[in-house]
Structures are given as structure tokens and as C-alpha cells.
Amino acid sequence: MRQYKTVIGLEVHIELATKTKIFCGCSTEFGGEPNTHTCPVCAGMPGSLPVLNRQVVEFALKAGIAANCQINQLCKFDRKNYFYPDNPQNYQISQLYLPLCHDGWIEIETSAGKKKIRIHEIHMEEDAGKLIHDEWEDCSLVDYNRSGVPLIEIVSEPDMRSAEEVIAYLDKLRCMMQYLGISDCKLQEGSMRADVNLSVCESGSDVWGTRTEMKNLNSFKAITRAIEAERERQIELLEMGRPVIQETRRWDDNKESSRAMRSKEDAKDYRYFPDPDLPPVHISDEWIQRIRNTQPQLREEKQQIYQDEMGLSDYDARVLTESAHLADLFEKTAELSQNPKRTAAWFMGEVLRLIKEYGTEPEKVCFSPKHLARLIYMVEEKKVSPANAKKVFEHIFNEDTEPEVFVREHGLGIVQNDDLMQRVVQKVLAENPGPFSELLGGKDKVFGFFVGQMMRELKGTASPEAVRDALTEEINKNRR
């Protein structure tokens, strides 16, 4: 069989985290009863006029600057005309001729190393509504709550050659947007959506094949499966001597297959023309500079700081910066505890364990940094044992409990009571005469058994060091 290479470009739609829609004052909150976040503007009523939301432009500028784009300081909105039930105006307000951002790039990292992916443009546009297909009633219902929600569309050049590169690119975009604070990029809620344009051609050929576009991809796993399936489908067609048709295909992840939706349109098919209701947007040098000056640290910069200034390993720095929200929690906790390495150990251990155990999204973790910082101090000051501290932290994680109050109310603190310690030592030794005889006879491995028995008896209210000291003292007495 001939060898083929895959050529992939992406169109990524990202919903912006503004409170209101791009051209009206309706809420952008996800969910809500159908058609309750609507008004004459986003419902496409005749005579209604759009008014541009300034924050949409600010967010789009943040994305463009972070993606090393050039900025069109005079940009315009256009009407993209098409007829579909979830498009109430029968056109979408978008940008074609003068998009806000163009000619950028981001760097991804894969198993093959680092690679730059060029970005053709980033433009602003409004989202359409949502069709809900009711198979029982054999009908489709339209919810316009999403209509008019602000989007940026990030259009890449066809620089990707594998599913691995695509996922690395999407993950980089998602992380970047979350750090910028302009989108939560939740694929399951549709706030980040990717259309995959894919073609195959013979290895070594300068002539690319006919591309198809795949839609309905709402997870990284689905995107990976769709890319592999479409690559195989196109290669099979070429091997049979049949042409690949330029079309838009819908991916069904349950069936792990795609089907044709419609022939793939070109820009001319949408009859773009400048929107007569929206004036051009002028982006001043001062506006761009202000955005540059207020850009937050992105993941790569934080990773370097964690290693250089906090002394963390490369692995820990990578894991702790995967979520912008968790990175912020970690930094605040580390500042309060004044012990970044100990704080990192808690996040890498207990925080990530509980996130996995409870199936919590990292962005929804909401305990107070001061409570974990105080718990770290309490362990260092030997006011609570490490084992009991983990029990306390689970309550901090779920209920944001004040650690000192919880330890006191549940008797989990380390007690300094020599009489109690001696009574427990004598009790444990008396209850285990066989192992005690072995210990007195020089079998030192049994010592750990008695430490465990005492810790269990004391229920974590004594430090391991204090238990070992008391046990050693009692053994020495019996050896005299």
C-alpha cells in the first residue's frame, strides 16, 4: 500500500466568559429554561439593532496577543448569510474581510518535540441557537438562549499532521484561554468546540488532497477517534480509485463513524457583506498596550517560576499548572504557609486524590487557602499527626472547615500526656507477650508492629516520634 500523510487544520470556537451577549444585554449563563435568556435582538426580531459589547473586544484582544497575532486596528463585522432553524436572523454576524487578529502562532509539545502551529486569524462572532431533537415526538425544538453568545473563532493553518498534534494544540488553547480568564473552555457544555478539516495525500507530494470538515466533536477522545476514522476512510477511497468529496460530515461517537451532512461551502456561498448596523471598530495603540500590560502569567511562565523560585521539580510544576484555578489556589496557600515544597506535596497528594475520588472538576475546588496553610503549620508544629491531618483536610476540601476547630472538636490533636503514653505502652506489650519476647530477644523488626499497635490505640493523637521514644524507653527498662 502507498504511504500517506495527513494534513489537518482546525476551526476552534470558544465562548467568551462575558456576563452578557455580544450585541445585547441578555445573560450568557449556561442552562436556564429554554428561550428565557432572549430579547428582540438575539431572537432576530425585525427592526432590532445590535450594540457591540466592549468586553468581547477586550477578551478577543487578550487571546490574539497571547497567540502572538498581529492586530487589525480597524476591523469590521460582516453578515454571513445562511438559512437554518437555530439562526433566527437568517444570517450570522461574523468577521471575514477585516478580522480582529491575524498571522499568529502558538507552540505545542508532543512526543516528537516542540512545534509551532500557525494561526491564520482570530475573529469575533455571535453563536447560533441550539436545536433539540426529540426522537419520541419526531420533531426538533429550538432554544435561542445560546443565540448571540459571544465567540471567538481561532482558525489555524493546516500545520498539524496527527491526532496527537491536534490534541496538544487544543489543550494548549484551552489552558491559555483559562489562564487569560476569558473562557472556561468546557467541551461538555459547548464553550469550546472544534471543527476538524482533514485531507490525506501521498507522502512526498506537494499537492494536498480534498479536505472534509467534521463537526459534533465534544471531547478530546472523540476528536482523536474522528481523526483516525476519517483518515482511514479517505485512504480507503483513494486506494479504490474513488474521489474524496469536499463535504461537511457529522461524527457519531457512539457508532465511531461519520456521515455526510452537506457539501462543504466556500466563503462565496455565504454571500458575505459588511453589516450595515455596526460601525467599524477602531483599536488604538493605547488600548493594545493596556491589554499587554494587564496580561496574566500563562502556564509556561508559571512553570518556570515554580522551578526556579520555589524549587519544585519539572513534573510537579507541570501538574500544578494544568489548571489555572488550582495553580492560583496553590500559590495563595504556598504564600500563607511560607513552605512551597510542603504545600506542593499536599496538592500533588491529597488535593489531586480527592479531586479524582469525588469526581470534582478542578475549577470547582473552593477550599480556603488559609485553612490548608494553617493545617500545614499544625503538622509542622506537631499539633496534629500526618494521618489525622489527612482526615481533617478531607473536611476542609468538602466543607472548608477551620482546621483548629475541627481538630479540637473531634479530639484529633496530638496530646502530650506522659502518663497516658506509659499506660498505652504497657497495655500493648501485655496484650502481645509473644512478639514482646521476640523483641526482647533482639528481633528488631517487631518494633514496627508495636509502633503500629500504639498508634492505633492512641487513634493518631500522638506523634510517631513520641510513640517510638516511649516504646524504646519501656523496652530498655525490661532489658535491664
UniProtKB/TrEMBL annotation:
<keyword id="KW-0648">Protein biosynthesis</keyword>
<dbReference type="InterPro" id="IPR017958">
    <property type="entry name" value="Gln-tRNA_amidoTrfase_suB_CS"/>
</dbReference>
<comment type="subunit">
    <text>Heterotrimer of A, B and C subunits.</text>
</comment>
<dbReference type="GO" id="GO:0050567">
    <property type="term" value="F:glutaminyl-tRNA synthase (glutamine-hydrolyzing) activity"/>
</dbReference>
<feature type="domain" description="Asn/Gln amidotransferase">
    <location>
        <begin position="328"/>
        <end position="475"/>
    </location>
</feature>
<keyword id="KW-0436">Ligase</keyword>
<dbReference type="InterPro" id="IPR014746">
    <property type="entry name" value="Gln_synth/guanido_kin_cat_dom"/>
</dbReference>
<dbReference type="Pfam" id="PF02637">
    <property type="entry name" value="GatB_Yqey"/>
</dbReference>
<keyword id="KW-0067">ATP-binding</keyword>
<dbReference type="InterPro" id="IPR004413">
    <property type="entry name" value="GatB"/>
</dbReference>
<dbReference type="InterPro" id="IPR018027">
    <property type="entry name" value="Asn/Gln_amidotransferase"/>
</dbReference>
<dbReference type="Pfam" id="PF02934">
    <property type="entry name" value="GatB_N"/>
</dbReference>
<keyword id="KW-0547">Nucleotide-binding</keyword>
<comment type="similarity">
    <text>Belongs to the GatB/GatE family. GatB subfamily.</text>
</comment>
<dbReference type="InterPro" id="IPR042114">
    <property type="entry name" value="GatB_C_1"/>
</dbReference>
<dbReference type="InterPro" id="IPR023168">
    <property type="entry name" value="GatB_Yqey_C_2"/>
</dbReference>
<protein>
    <recommendedName>
        <fullName>Aspartyl/glutamyl-tRNA(Asn/Gln) amidotransferase subunit B</fullName>
        <ecNumber>6.3.5.-</ecNumber>
    </recommendedName>
</protein>
<comment type="function">
    <text>Allows the formation of correctly charged Asn-tRNA(Asn) or Gln-tRNA(Gln) through the transamidation of misacylated Asp-tRNA(Asn) or Glu-tRNA(Gln) in organisms which lack either or both of asparaginyl-tRNA or glutaminyl-tRNA synthetases. The reaction takes place in the presence of glutamine and ATP through an activated phospho-Asp-tRNA(Asn) or phospho-Glu-tRNA(Gln).</text>
</comment>
<dbReference type="InterPro" id="IPR006075">
    <property type="entry name" value="Asn/Gln-tRNA_Trfase_suB/E_cat"/>
</dbReference>
<dbReference type="InterPro" id="IPR017959">
    <property type="entry name" value="Asn/Gln-tRNA_amidoTrfase_suB/E"/>
</dbReference>
<dbReference type="InterPro" id="IPR003789">
    <property type="entry name" value="Asn/Gln_tRNA_amidoTrase-B-like"/>
</dbReference>
<dbReference type="GO" id="GO:0050566">
    <property type="term" value="F:asparaginyl-tRNA synthase (glutamine-hydrolyzing) activity"/>
</dbReference>
